[in-house]
Amino acid sequence: MLERGMSRRRVFGLGAAVAAGFAVTGCGTAQSDTAVAEPSSTSPYPVAGDSAVVAKTAPAPNNSPAAVVARHAGDQPQQWGVEMPGILSTFGATGKQMALTFDACGGPGNNDIDESLVNFLIAQQIPATLFLNKRWIDANQARAAQLAVNPLFELANHGVAHKPLSVTGRAAYGIAGTGSAQEAADEVWANHERLTGLVGKPPRFFRAGTAHYDDVAVAIVNELGETPVGFSINADYGATASAAKVQAAMNAAAPGAISLAHMHRPQSGTGAGMIAVLPMIRDMGFTFVHL
Hints:
By secondary structure, the chain is an alpha/beta fold. The protein has helices spanning 65-72, 115-123, 134-139, 141-148, 181-199, 215-223, 243-250, 270-283, and strands at residues 31-36, 53-57, 80-81, 97-104, 128-132, 153-157, 205-206, 213-214, 227-228, 233-234, 257-262, 287-289. This is Peptidoglycan/xylan/chitin deacetylase (PgdA/CDA1 family). GO terms for molecular function: hydrolase activity, acting on carbon-nitrogen (but not peptide) bonds.
């Protein structure tokens, strides 16, 4: 288990996506001297990766939303999908670590919460990163506030309207994506501000609706100060999988894996599958960590 004094290392996943990864998934600056990063969190729960050396840099560019949009307004994307450079799909594990992530997609029919799943994570002291959509937060303000103060969970950004993140309107699973650099930035930033107010600090991670991005949108997210996150295990196929299928998918656990599942559909097989399989994975010697 990692000490909290160690800093995080983000490893941007690239390589072959697992077969399940393409099924339904959802509802440069100049460097000088180097120094070991200071701890960025006081959470008692372990963090993905080991200690890293970070560079002191020249003054940062203007990464206000307006400046980011202006820089990318005319850019044409060259890549599209759930995995590409700049998206965190796995991390550099120290030993047998894996990260659990759960999305709350929000919107009509998607504002519920799987209390059995969340209560199980709390009872078993299993840390997880929760990607909350702004609509879900607004519909569950008291519950979101409870999650925000529980160090077991890190709250992350799942956008405003659960759209694939694009600058051309490209769709995934029939869901139209954001249609411009401005719309992409808006999809990230409004919930960035909502989460900052809720948690008291800015979110570090973003996952687009359906987990699809184009490469321009990936750059926009990074410049807005968040890391785009994908997955290496698609655990519940957009909360459509049976409990048995969730268990089977999670059996692909490997060091550095990031699993994607959902926490807003209590009638799905996600909760039962996770409740059954997570103790097994822990018995195999895995430690669950925050991203």
